[in-house]
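To the wet lab folks,

You asked to see what we're planning to order before we commit. Fair enough. Below is the target structure as tokens, and below that is the sequence we designed to fit it. If anything looks off to you, flag it before the synthesis order goes out.
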């Protein structure tokens, strides 16, 4: 059995029911909208975010979920999908998970409107059911994701990024949404409980480890879903690169920054940068930091009694670190 199927096993019923509810939550009287939302649903990924919501809810609440849990998972997925549709427009990307993106098939104007529609559907799903605590959790995540993206763009212009700023970027850009999934799962069944903050922190740590793993793929040689050196081409300052810059001579540092700033489209130069970062121990350092975040996340799970839901969350933590793409 594949690891994602193992993780999903204790929540298989909930996930099946969630898919039906999620499709309903997207429905509209406009035929074009329904055609596009059906296209999006049929090309879904592994659905890690709703899985976090249901596993956390069941772990902290003796195996039980509520209608609020389904709504919370739907809100997360609606808003996450909206951000992906908008991201593809911003990045001028024609592919998403191996398929054509919405903007590639229906052009940018329609893609932006679809993103706006999904965002409003998510907000209204919470408002109509008075889930204001859940709405606050997801709204904070959306704000932070936007800030993280803009901070990264700002820093890519100057390339003056420290390790602390890097952690802040990935916390906002990636970790905040996984943190929202986990805190939302707890809040859906135990509003105002201490579990909500514990699970938020748990999700944030997983998200940090997840993004560092993603950064490491940029230096790999396997078939990993994205071509190597793509972060360098996009002038993204990742942890291995930051470590190499911080541990270089003045001359090496100048060459590195100049390479990323002015020669990031030169394939030979990008390969040289990758080799340099590897030789400086950038990959080993990033792996050690990723494992620190993993260990911190696992410590938080120690406070909960053994259950199949906790076992699945442990599998999820390890999957984030061991995945090949």
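Sequence we intend to order:
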């Amino acid at each position: 059995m594949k690891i994602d199927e193992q993780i999903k096993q204790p929540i298989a019923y909930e996930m099946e029911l969630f898919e039906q509810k999620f499709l309903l939550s997207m429905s509209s009287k406009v035929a074009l909208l329904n055609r596009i939302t059906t296209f999006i649903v049929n090309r879904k990924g592994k659905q890690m975010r709703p899985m976090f919501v249901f596993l956390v809810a069941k772990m902290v609440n003796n195996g039980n979920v509520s209608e609020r849990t389904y709504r919370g998972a739907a809100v997360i997925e609606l808003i996450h999908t909206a951000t992906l549709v908008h991201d593809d427009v911003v990045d001028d990307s024609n592919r998403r998970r191996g398929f054509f993106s919405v903007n590639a098939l229906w052009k940018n104007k329609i893609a932006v409107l679809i993103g706006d529609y999904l965002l409003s559907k998510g907000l209204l799903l919470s408002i109509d059911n008075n889930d204001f605590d859940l709405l606050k959790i997801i709204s904070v995540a959306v704000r932070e994701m936007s800030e993280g993206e803009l901070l990264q763009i700002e820093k890519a212009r100057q390339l003056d990024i420290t390790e602390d700023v890097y952690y802040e970027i990935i916390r906002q850009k990636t970790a905040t949404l996984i943190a929202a999934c986990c805190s939302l799962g707890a809040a859906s069944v135990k509003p105002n409980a201490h579990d909500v903050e514990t699970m938020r922190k748990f999700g944030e740590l997983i998200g940090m480890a997840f993004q560092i793993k993603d950064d490491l793929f940029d230096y790999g040689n396997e078939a990993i879903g994205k071509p190597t050196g793509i972060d360098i081409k996009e002038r993204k300052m990742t942890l291995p690169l930051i470590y190499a810059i911080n541990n270089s001579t003045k001359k090496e540092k100048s060459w590195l920054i100049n390479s990323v700033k002015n020669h990031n489209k030169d394939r030979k130069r990008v390969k040289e940068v990758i080799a340099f970062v590897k030789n400086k121990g950038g990959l080993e350092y990033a792996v050690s930091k990723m494992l620190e975040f993993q260990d911190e996340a696992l410590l938080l799970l120690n406070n909960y009694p053994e259950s199949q839901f906790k076992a699945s969350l442990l599998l999820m933590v390890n999957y984030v670190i061991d995945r090949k793409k």
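Structural context that might help your review: Residues 102-128 form the longest helix (27 residues). The chain has 15 helices and two strands.

Thanks,
Computational group
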